[in-house]
Write a structure and sequence with these properties.
Length: 409
C-alpha cells in the first residue's frame, strides 16, 4: 500500500501539466517540504527580478518621476486579478489589507440597505472578518451582528449583508458561490465574499454569481510576499452608487488638483484611500501572469487532484493512527488545503517543523493544515510530508512538544 502511494505520487508528478512552473520559484532548501503556501506563498524568480528592478531603477534612479508608472498600479494589477476571479475589467483594485477592505466594502454595502439592521456571517469564518463586523456594529447601534452556523438558512427580510469566506480557512470547505449568492439575494440582502483562501487556487466566478462585493488576499496563493496589499471588487453597476467610508486623496477623481472639495473617482479607484505600498505590490504580478497563462480551470483541476491524493493517503495510512479528516470528503466542496485533526495537533505540527523539515501549520484547537499550491507543490512532497506526519504520530515523536506554546502557528 505504502509503496504504491509513493509510485502514484511520482506518476502524478510526471503527468502534471503544471510541473514546469516549479522551477520558476525560489526553492531555498530543496529538502524542505513546504505545504504552507496558503499562509505565505513562495517567492518567484520573476518577482525577485521585478522587485530588484523596482528598487534599483524605478526608485533608485527614477525617484519621484516613477509615479507616472506607479499611479495606475492598483487598477492595472486589479484588472489582472479580475481575469482570475471571473470579474469584468475596471471592477478590481489592489489596495490596503483584506481587513481594511472588508471594512470599506461592508460599510458601503450597508448603505444600500438602510432599512435593514442585521449582518450575518458564519462561525467558521476567519476571526478578523468577524471582528471587523463587530467594529462596524459598535459604531452603529441600530445594527446587529449574528454569527451563526449556517447564514444561508437564516438570511431573511431584515438581513442587510451576508459576509462569507468562499473557502473556510480551517476546514477548506468551499461554498458554491453561485448558489449561495442566489439565496442571499433572494432574501434581498447584499453578498460580500472573502476570497482569501480561494483566489489563485480554485475557480471563482464572481460576475456569474452576481455578488455585489468581494475582497481577497494576495500573499497566499498569489505569492505577493509578506504584507502585500489585498484587493477589492465592486460589481460594475454599483460603482456609481456606493462610496468608501475612508475618503482619501487616492480615491479622489483628481487627486493632484489638491482641492478641498471631495469628489470620488468614477471607477473602482474611489475605493482607494492613501498612497499604495508600491514595492509591496510588485511581487504578485509574476504569479498573476502565470495563472492567466494557464487558466484557472487547469489550476483547479490540479488542486483537486492534490487534495484527492491527500485524502487517499489519509484513508490508507493516517486514519488508522487516530488522525481525523477535518476537511469535506467531497472534492466539489473543497478549496486547495486539507486539514487533519488530532488531539495533539500542535505538538505534531511542531515536531514536523523542528525535526522533519515539513512545514504545515496548526489551527486551533486540533487541526494540522496542509496547503497545496498547484504552481509549485509536487505530489511527492505531499506524499513525503504526510508520510512523515504518519511517522511522527506512530513513533510518539511529538510527545516532547506537548508543553510548547509558540506565538505564531
Ligand atoms: C488571510 C486572510 C485574511 C487576511 O487579512 P489581512 O487583513 O490581510 O491580514 C482575511 N480574511 C481571510 C478569510 C483570510 O484567510
Amino acid at each position: 500500500m505504502y509503496s504504491s502511494l509513493y509510485e502514484e505520487a511520482q506518476s502524478r508528478d510526471a503527468k502534471n501539466p503544471l510541473g514546469r512552473f516549479r522551477q520558476q520559484f525560489v526553492i531555498g532548501d530543496p529538502e524542505l517540504i513546504y505545504l504552507d503556501g496558503n499562509s505565505l506563498g513562495r517567492l518567484s524568480l520573476l518577482a525577485k527580478e521585478a522587485l530588484m528592478q523596482a528598487i534599483e531603477e524605478d526608485w533608485g534612479k527614477g525617484l519621484v518621476r516613477s509615479w507616472q508608472k506607479w499611479l495606475p498600479q492598483p487598477t492595472r494589477l486589479g484588472d489582472k486579478i479580475a481575469q482570475i476571479i471571473g470579474a469584468a475589467p475596471g471592477t478590481v483594485a489592489v489596495c490596503d489589507s483584506t481587513s481594511v477592505n472588508l471594512y470599506k466594502l461592508a460599510v458601503a454595502a450597508l448603505s444600500l440597505r438602510p432599512a435593514r439592521t442585521e449582518i450575518l456571517t458564519d462561525t467558521p469564518n476567519f476571526p478578523s472578518d468577524i471582528y471587523l463586523l463587530e467594529g462596524i456594529v459598535k459604531q452603529n447601534p441600530n445594527l446587529k451582528l449574528r454569527v451563526v452556523e449556517d447564514p444561508l438558512a437564516e438570511v431573511g427580510e431584515n438581513t442587510a449583508l451576508v459576509l462569507l469566506s468562499h473557502v473556510h480557512f480551517k476546514s477548506g470547505f468551499k461554498f458554491d458561490m453561485v448558489a449561495a449568492t442566489e439565496i442571499v439575494q433572494e432574501a434581498g440582502a447584499i453578498m460580500l465574499w472573502d476570497l482569501s483562501h480561494s483566489v489563485g487556487a480554485v475557480q471563482v466566478e464572481l460576475e456569474k454569481s452576481g455578488a455585489e462585493f468581494a475582497v481577497g488576499c494576495t500573499y497566499k496563493y498569489l505569492n505577493g510576499g509578506p504584507g502585500s496589499p489585498a484587493f477589492l471588487y465592486v460589481r460594475k453597476d454599483l460603482l456609481s452608487q456606493v462610496e468608501s467610508p475612508i475618503l482619501g486623496w487616492f480615491g479622489h477623481s483628481r487627486a493632484f488638483d489638491f482641492t478641498t472639495q471631495y469628489q470620488p473617482a468614477e471607477g473602482i479607484e474611489r475605493f482607494l484611500a492613501g498612497t499604495p505600498p508600491i514595492l509591496s505590490t510588485i511581487a504578485m504580478e509574476a504569479t498573476l501572469d502565470m495563472l492567466i497563462e494557464v487558466g484557472m480551470n487547469q489550476i483547479e483541476e490540479v488542486s483537486r487532484q492534490m487534495t484527492e491524493y491527500a485524502c487517499e493517503f489519509w484513508r490508507a495510512r493516517l486514519s488508522e493512527l487516530g488522525v481525523g479528516l477535518a476537511s469535506p470528503p467531497n472534492p466539489q466542496e473543497r478549496g486547495s488545503h486539507i486539514s487533519f485533526s488530532h488531539p495533539n495537533a500542535l505538538a505534531i505540527d511542531l515536531a514536523l517543523i523542528q525535526e522533519q523539515k515539513v512545514i504545515p501549520d496548526f489551527r486551533t484547537p486540533d487541526n494540522v493544515r496542509f496547503g497545496f499550491t498547484p504552481l509549485y507543490t509536487t505530489f511527492v512532497e505531499i506524499h513525503d510530508g504526510l508520510e512523515r506526519m504518519a511517522k511522527v504520530v506512530e513513533s510518539g515523536a511529538y510527545l516532547k512538544y506537548l508543553d510548547q506554546v509558540p506565538n505564531v502557528t
